[in-house]
């Protein structure tokens, strides 16, 4: 079984915020695949789909961002899921808004959700799709920025980025992650490569 973990914060107050880019991807995958991400289990909302003959679980941890690793660990233990079958999707300040960046290892880079997953899994080696949110302008606190909504002007880029992330994840179900990285890294959403 493959499993896709989108990081974000639960509740309507956080729904459209930059920090919930991971949830946005899970919601779009669920829409594409006709899945319902409503089962409350493993400190997450979970949905299941069969895609390209592969069973895929979709997870939205309900622990709040800083404790995302608790949900990941709980899912791993309950389903005996392999870490190499997981893809984590999350917002990234160091990637330009509208772009995605795939990685299979690395530090948390200051992202508390990733920090928590590393802490609870004991490794920095797992597949990731980073959703670009750019850095805030000087003078704006990072916490206020990530918990703010994408402005209207950025909505088209955000929608393209979410679609691109979903395309990359679908491609990754049938290809090795390094092949997926080669295909999707470095191009702007909607660009052919």
UniProtKB/TrEMBL annotation:
Residues the UniProt record annotates as site (Stabilizes the basic form of H active site to accept a proton): 91
Pfam families: Pept_tRNA_hydro (PF01195)
Name by which UniProt lists this protein: Peptidyl-tRNA hydrolase
EC number: 3.1.1.29
Residues at the site labelled Discriminates between blocked and unblocked aminoacyl-tRNA: 9
Organism encoding this protein: Cohnella zeiphila
GO BP term (any one): rescue of stalled ribosome
Molecular function per GO: peptidyl-tRNA hydrolase activity; tRNA binding
A Gene Ontology cellular-component term: cytoplasm
Keyword Cytoplasm (UniProt): yes
Superkingdom of origin: Bacteria
Annotated tRNA binding sites: 14, 64, 66, 112
Function: Catalyzes the release of premature peptidyl moieties from peptidyl-tRNA molecules trapped in stalled 50S ribosomal subunits, and thus maintains levels of free tRNAs and 50S ribosomes.
Top-rank EC class of the record's enzyme: hydrolase
Family from the record: Belongs to the PTH family.
Catalytic reaction equation(s): an N-acyl-L-alpha-aminoacyl-tRNA + H2O = an N-acyl-L-amino acid + a tRNA + H(+)
InterPro entries on file: Pept_tRNA_hydro, Pept_tRNA_hydro_CS, Pept_tRNA_hydro_sf
Assembly and interaction partners: Monomer.
Enzyme active site: 19
SUPFAM superfamilies membership: Peptidyl-tRNA hydrolase-like (SSF53178)
Predominant subcellular localization, coarse grouping: cytoplasm
NCBIfam families the record matches: pth (TIGR00447)
Subcellular locations according to the entry: Cytoplasm
Keywords in alphabetical order: Cytoplasm, Hydrolase, RNA-binding, tRNA-binding
């Amino acid at each position: 079984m493959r499993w896709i973990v989108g990081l974000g914060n639960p509740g309507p107050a956080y729904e459209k915020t930059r920090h919930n880019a991971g949830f946005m991807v899970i919601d779009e995958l669920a829409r594409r695949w006709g899945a319902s991400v409503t089962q409350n289990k493993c400190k997450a909302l979970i949905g299941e789909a069969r895609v390209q003959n592969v069973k895929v679980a979709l997870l939205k941890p309900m622990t709040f961002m800083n404790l995302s690793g608790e949900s990941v660990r709980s899912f791993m233990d309950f389903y005996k899921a392999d870490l190499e079958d997981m893809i984590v999707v999350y917002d990234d300040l160091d990637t330009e808004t509208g772009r995605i960046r795939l990685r299979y290892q690395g530090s948390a880079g200051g992202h508390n959700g990733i920090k928590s997953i590393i802490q609870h899994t004991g490794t920095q080696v797992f597949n990731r799709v980073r959703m670009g949110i750019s850095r805030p302008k000087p003078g704006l606190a990072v916490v206020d920025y990530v918990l703010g909504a994408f402005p209207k002007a950025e909505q088209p880029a955000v929608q393209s980025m979410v679609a691109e992330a979903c395309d990359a994840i679908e491609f990754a179900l049938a290809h090795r992650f390094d092949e997926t990285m080669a295909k999707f890294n470095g191009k702007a959403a909607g660009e052919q490569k």
